[in-house]
Amino acid sequence: MKFSLGSLRLNSLRSRLMLLVALAITPIAVMTLVNGVREREQAVKASEENLRRLTRLAAANEAQSIEAARQILVDLASVPDLLGPKERCRALLADVLDRNEGYVNFGLIQLNGDVSCSAVPLLHPVNLGDRSHFKRAISERRFIAGDYVFGRVIRKHTINLTYPVINHDGQVVAVVFAAMDLADLDTFVNDISLPPGSVLTTADARGQIISRRPEPERWLGTAISQPMLEGMAHANGRSLVLKGDDGVERLHAFAHVGAPQLTDYTVSIGIPTDTITYTARHDQLMSLVALAATTMLALLAAWLAGDILIVQRVRKLMDTARSIAAGKLDARTGIEYGHEEIGNLAKALDEMAEALQKKETARSLAERELRAADQRKDEFLAMLAHELRNPLAPISTGAHLLKLLHSDSAQITQTCAIIARQVEHMTSLVDDLLDVSRVTRGLVSLSTQALDLKKVVEDAAEQIRPLVNARRHRVVIDLPQEPAIVKGDHKRLVQVVANLLGNATKYTPEGGHIELRLAREDDDYVISVSDDGIGMESSLVERVFDLFTQAERTPDRSQGGLGLGLALAKSLVELHGGSVRAYSAGLGKGSIFTVRLPRHEEHAATQAPALPSIERRGAPAAPLRILLVDDNQDAAHTLQLFLEAAGHAVQVAHRAAEGLELARAFRPQVCLLDIGLPDFDGNELARRLRLTPQAAGATLVAMTGYGRQQDREASALAGFDHYLVKPVNTVQLTQLLATVRVPQTAALNRPPL
């Protein structure tokens, strides 16, 4: 028998048999756990009751000590010598101190706070007017047990117990006090057997420890934890489980020391919870061990029975199924058929394998035929592309020759430019045709920039004009007055609109009407092309953008086309983040195609401004030293030529590390940095340039294709002064450079390289 963890999965038959055994034992396991929890609760409850009793005993013991001190002070307050000559007063207090253990001093405090008499000689005058117990004894005219103090005279941990001295007229004339040594406040605990790790703590009203067992000297005068303070505030409430400074969890009980008129002290005793529940946990552990042993024996029996009766036969079924999945359709189970479930399953599997074997033969034949058809399609596309290229070459050559022979004619020159542009556009369409799958899957490379859709519509209309004129269509173009700015590839968008117009001309009879409208809707621009042509059935509308889909043709195929235009248009629009839709009311009722593109906020740069226009906008007062870092060599070289034509000194680097080294030698005044660099990004380069003395004061300009708000914020944090989104508007860049001001004498002071 081979054991594996995978065999224990609950979706196997043997594991389900074991699950049944486990379910049968589950009630016993639950009862064992419940009984263990109850035993622990009973242990905690019994310990909690004993702990409360012990805590009350400790509080009573401390209250007894405080009450004894109160009685001593009451007696002292009635002795006439206390207010007599100082020598008699000192002798009286010294005698009382000698007769009472656990005290470190007795004294008399005048109403101004001066200690006028003390059992312990005073080396210098002492004033206790700031002590709260002194003030309360006068104002409340009763015994006061003060908070923890470290004695000024005796230099020990004490609590001061005070009582007012009242004359025959009922006026407070002084306050007598006793300083109790905290080291012996809870000596009775030594006679009580507490579990190891137990803690007794007494705290005053401020939460300072006045008694602590064990290690009293370490803890006296320190503050208790906030949870402990909250527990002492409700001393008559339930016990609490708190974690101490040593990380041990203890069950704490709380009790007030005496009546509220006697003290504000609270006693707490904490016993480790592990000690309380040890016996219950030990008994529960033994029960769980016995239960685990019983469970394992039962599961082992179920495992062995399941292996013999179920698993071995099911494994044959699995091996046969895997063989069939691997292509061995002649595989069979070899299990004897019977009237039980596994035998019936084996019979069904063998019958399935036989049926699949027959279907595979038919499928292989169909696949060979499909591959042949696909190969013929590819050959057709290649032949069509070849045949389309043949007339393009003489057209292009003839256009250039015509321009050369009639260069003085503006009309001919313009016509030649149109021909050349259309030849270039047709060539790009032929290139797309050679790889239709690449186009329809959105893998066309786009060169996006901010552009005006009105110019796109005009160029598309110019491209399709010969076909419109040939079919004598009446075309109405409705454009808005303001620019319609989007971000996209001009050539590809012209291709989209031209395909829609071309589709309208193909399926609109001669003399028909075509309307092209451009309008803004919310945050989008919508281009709609409508016609009064042959229209479409609803079934065709749903698949009109599929590849090679066409409406019904006339016998002479006068419409032309391969059914690629609309599929290509849909793919290109989606690459621009837009959408395209088709609508038709039915056959003979025309069609409407709409393209929706997101509006772009920046102004379009329809043409690269010539150098003279840059100069008219204003050049900087002095030429600048400009460091240009961009890994796109063509883009960097083009921008370098533009900047040098404007009079600037330009150094180019294609890696961030190279740019950093160049900055140390070149001392640039402006740094134009790409963000996506091969070694480390432009943000990191900006940080390093700010730390470089030669470029720390330079104006840093980010040039990147990332335009999100978080990208702008990251560049600002990196130290960039300006942020330009590619493609960079040269007019905007020129205006930006014009704002950079440097001393005339240092403008082109190029450091030695």
Structural commentary:
With 753 residues, the protein is of the alpha+beta class. It is 47% helix and 18% strand. The chain contains 20 helices and 22 strands. The strands form 5 sheets. Strands 2-1-5-4-3 form a 5-stranded antiparallel beta sheet, sandwiched between helices. A 5-stranded antiparallel beta sheet has the order 7-6-10-9-8. Helix 1 runs antiparallel to helix 7 and helix 7 packs across helix 8.
What would you say about this model in short?
The protein is of the alpha+beta class and 753 residues long. It is 47% helix and 18% strand. Strands 2-1-5-4-3 form a five-stranded antiparallel beta sheet, sandwiched between helices. The protein has a five-stranded antiparallel beta sheet with strand order 7-6-10-9-8.
Note the topology.
Blueprint: H1 13-77, H2 86-99, E1 103-110, E2 115-118, H3 132-140, E3 144-150, E4 157-166, E5 172-181, E6 199-203, E7 209-213, H4 216-219, H5 226-233, E8 240-243, E9 249-256, E10 266-272, H6 273-276, H7 278-325, H8 341-405, H9 410-433, H10 436-440, E11 449-452, H11 453-470, E12 474-478, E13 485-488, H12 490-506, E14 513-521, E15 524-531, H13 538-542, H14 565-575, E16 579-583, E17 592-598, H15 611-617, E18 625-629, H16 633-645, E19 649-653, H17 656-666, E20 670-674, H18 682-690, E21 699-704, H19 709-718, E22 722-725, H20 730-738
Parallel strand pairs: 12-14, 18-19, 18-20, 20-21, 21-22
Antiparallel strand pairs: 1-2, 1-5, 3-4, 4-5, 6-7, 6-10, 8-9, 9-10, 11-13, 14-15, 15-17, 16-17
Helix pairs in contact: 1-7, 7-8, 8-9, 11-12, 12-14, 17-18
